[in-house]
Amino acid sequence: MIQIKNNVFLLKNENISYMFRVTKDGNLEHLHFGAPVEIDDEDAFAVRYGVGWGSTGGPEGEEFPMYLPMEWSSLGRGDYRESPMELDQEIPAAFKYTSYKEYDHTVAIECGLPQAHGDAETLEIIMTSPSQMSLHLFYTLFDTAVTRRAVFRNETRRSINVEKMMSSMMDIQGDYEITTYNGAWIAEMQPYRAKVGMSGIVNESTTGFSSALHNPGFILSEPDATETDGVVMGFNLIYSGNHYSRVQRSNEGLIRIVQGISPVSFDWLLGPGKQFETPEAVMVWSASGFGGMSENMHRFINEHIIPQYWHNRERPVLYNDWEGCMFDFTESKLISLAKKAKELGCELFVLDDGWFGERNSDKAGLGDYNVNKKKLPNGLSGLQKKLGDLGLDFGLWFEPEAVNPDSDLFRKHPDWAIQSDDGVTVLGRNELLLDLSLPEVRDYIVENVSRCIDEGKVSYVKWDMNRHSTALGASAHRYILGLYDVLRRIFGPRPEVLLESCSSGGNRFDLGMLCFSPQIWASDNTDAVERCRIQYQLSYLYPLSTIGAHVSAAPHSQTLRDTPLSTRGNISFFGLLGYEFDLADLTPVETDEIKNQIAFYKKYRNLFQFGSFRRLKAAEGISMQVSGDGTAVAGLFHELVHAAPGYERLYPRGLDPKKVYSVLSRRQLLNATKFGGLLRHVLPIRVKPDGAVVRTAGKIYRMNDAVRECDATGAALMSGMSLNARFMGTGYDPSMRMQGDFSSNIYVITTEET
Ligand code: DGJ
């Protein structure tokens, strides 16, 4: 609901409120972002600044914006905090409130930027400056979030260069810490938390894309906020290019938050009568700690960001050939992998890189869309037909935004690639970016990708992008608009094609991409233990339905870690399950374990993908839970085992304290070879650790692991359910958790009481 009274504006629903007012000088004073409140509460929020502090430098006769909590600010008006906007003209634009408009829906962005959709109300505040410019601030209220964006219109008779233009600015009061998520390739989502001080913290990307270096999402939390208590706010930007946020505290204790496109190398020449639209900034609020904030953000993304067709639509369990084959495959090798994948329970077979042109390594062929007939003599349709006969859907990899210099495309159109003016070719993964601001480049991509999708009856596309570039400079924003145009033209008419975006893993994990691709490949780091941390950190800002997570080989290619198969599966459950290694050498026991994993995931798939997600308390390691409709599934993931580990408990949340629940651990199998010579302690015969008996036992002998059953009230379970011992010792008991390092277990908690 939007309420307006005496120049006070309130956007309010049962979860959240946003309130501001117009001051007597036509500025916008921020009043409140948080718990639902009433419009008459204005007086409780407005700051009282008396006669102001010292010399203020504000325009004569006006109040002192330097000290006010503001919704927007201008240079040259006495506000020395960060300005949301900079133009190339001598007299800074001073915008004053003139009018408003109300809409009972979202208001379309005209320049092609993606935006949140669905039920919403929008308030447009119109501000003008004496120099014929207008600013339109859009506030859209969704059930668990508020979004903001700004539009600048040049109503003068000359061109104006926009050098900086934020989507939103807001000054709030309080003591907050900021958490940002930083990293690199195969090291995404490393949290960094700091007190918001007067120097401020900048969270910015300048690689041309949202980047793994600094994810655009960030969190503000009260210093003592926990997973379940305290005020926590989540922020993000619906944009995939260079982003910028700064959070800075003023002397008076106001915290200024700006969000938008990075001003680094940015400028946009705005002709007379033209407008510049910024991407939508997202804000959620919760008084129920980090968990409450995540839940609100997850709901917002699942209901208002993900393409409509994929709302609540279950995602397939897939097999991807990349880590198993790389560039080295033939149709018959793929079909034999596909047969095994089908036997295991996979539903979709994804052919990754290497299927077109001379793409036999990452040095050549990118940009050419002719099928490599040596590898696929029957083309895409031939492969699809065979997969279809096996009962598998067909998924295909593309990297449409880049080109190898060693490709027919580059030889024909060298001018389509973005290169620096000094004539020095700088490659990244042997690639150059194509200039997506050129219509002919966009047409080429749309035509070719669409043709391949239709030819191969492709039901899933992995859209990769491995070349970030600071050389995009001022054209970075045009590139991103071009990318959105291409995505819209390919997938708009094909909503049922599931798009998974990827950028060397999580180098473009952002809300802009999620508006087109319901899921994103979280990281090229597929080591289960490291991936667990990446998925866990992603969960703060993104729902599990968006996180592509595959089981890979052990020992792992990046870490050599030999993580138990059970744990590799358990971690991938908390994301979108897939398998990505050579299946040819699976033993009968491993085959059985994977069949079990897939069957289990399918049974609880809706909960894993769309259930309510919680991070749980754990004495050691990571614990997470998904729940809905009287069932909860909780996972507990450990790192190194200790010889004398002490008693441990699982702490599920969100159960009905009065109802009785049954807990049952997921059936997991132990590989007997793990025990080597220790087997002699439980077998009647003496065995050699590396002998035929142990090896054969490893292939076929199934040892149940960590069986735990318990019936108790929700109250008792939430107080902490005791877990089986992890003591390693000698001797075997099927109830013990015996996987050693990097063990994990999954517990299903159900109730029949209604
Ligand atoms: C990078 C991606 O992140 C990988 O999953 C894989 O698709 C390779 N590119 C293929 O070149």
Secondary structure layout plus pairing:
Layout: E1 2-5, E2 8-12, E3 17-22, E4 28-34, H1 42-45, E5 85-87, E6 96-103, E7 121-129, E8 133-141, E9 146-154, E10 160-173, E11 177-182, E12 190-195, E13 201-204, E14 214-221, E15 232-237, E16 243-249, E17 254-261, E18 268-270, E19 275-277, E20 281-286, H2 289-304, E21 318-320, H3 322-325, H4 331-344, E22 348-351, H5 379-390, E23 393-398, E24 402-403, H6 408-412, E25 432-433, H7 439-455, E26 460-463, H8 476-491, E27 498-501, H9 511-514, E28 519-521, H10 528-538, E29 547-551, H11 565-573, E30 576-579, H12 588-603, H13 605-610, E31 612-616, E32 622-628, E33 631-637, E34 649-650, E35 660-665, E36 668-671, H14 692-700, E37 702-705, E38 709-713, H15 714-718, E39 721-722, E40 744-750
Parallel strand pairs: 21-22, 21-30, 22-23, 23-26, 26-27, 27-28, 28-29, 29-30
Antiparallel strand pairs: 1-2, 2-3, 3-4, 5-10, 6-7, 7-8, 8-9, 9-19, 9-20, 10-17, 10-18, 11-12, 11-14, 13-16, 14-15, 15-20, 16-17, 24-25, 31-32, 32-33, 33-40, 34-39, 35-38, 35-40, 36-37
Bound molecules: (2R,3S,4R,5S)-2-(hydroxymethyl)piperidine-3,4,5-triol (DGJ).
Residues 322, 352-353, 362, 397, 464, 466, 502, 504-505, 521, 524 line the site of (2R,3S,4R,5S)-2-(hydroxymethyl)piperidine-3,4,5-triol (DGJ).
